């Protein structure tokens, strides 16, 4: 008895969920249309137009022109940003060289201040 009631409730919940998702998407669409102040038409009919070869040519020309314009703008932005990128790369490489020098200098100073460790590392004194 409990099992059958539980299964029936579960099936009803699963059947109701797609409707809830549909309602959610419908409400979101209505909210978007109200924000954009678009008229909502219930009769959506798509008019099929015939595309002529000249129209296709102009469409492709427009796409190619837009891509060239976007590409040239991106190229100009890249040219303007190149000195900044080069300066940042030089600063980071300089910082890396300074870090390497400081690590080497610190290890030398540490060995000079600890003569027992210096002798042990050179092989003069193997015992601790």
Automatic annotation (TrEMBL):
- The organism named in the record is Picea sitchensis (Sitka spruce)
Q: Where are the transmembrane segments?
A: 58-81, 87-111
| Keyword annotations from UniProtKB, A to Z | Membrane, Transmembrane, Transmembrane helix
What domain of life does the native source organism fall in?
Eukaryota
Put simply, this protein is called Uncharacterized protein
């Amino acid at each position: 008895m409990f099992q059958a009631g539980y299964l029936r409730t579960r099936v009803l919940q699963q059947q109701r969920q797609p409707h809830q998702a549909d309602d959610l998407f419908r409400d979101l669409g209505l909210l978007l249309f109200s924000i954009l102040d678009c008229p909502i038409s219930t009769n959506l009919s798509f008019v099929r137009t015939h595309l002529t070869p000249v129209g296709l040519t102009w469409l492709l020309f427009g796409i190619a022109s837009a891509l060239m314009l976007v590409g040239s703008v991106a190229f100009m932005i890249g040219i303007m940003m190149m000195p900044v990128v080069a300066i940042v790369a030089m600063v980071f490489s300089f910082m890396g060289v300074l870090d390497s020098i400081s690590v080497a200098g610190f290890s030398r100073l540490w060995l000079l201040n600890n003569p027992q460790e210096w002798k042990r590392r050179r092989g003069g004194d193997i015992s601790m």
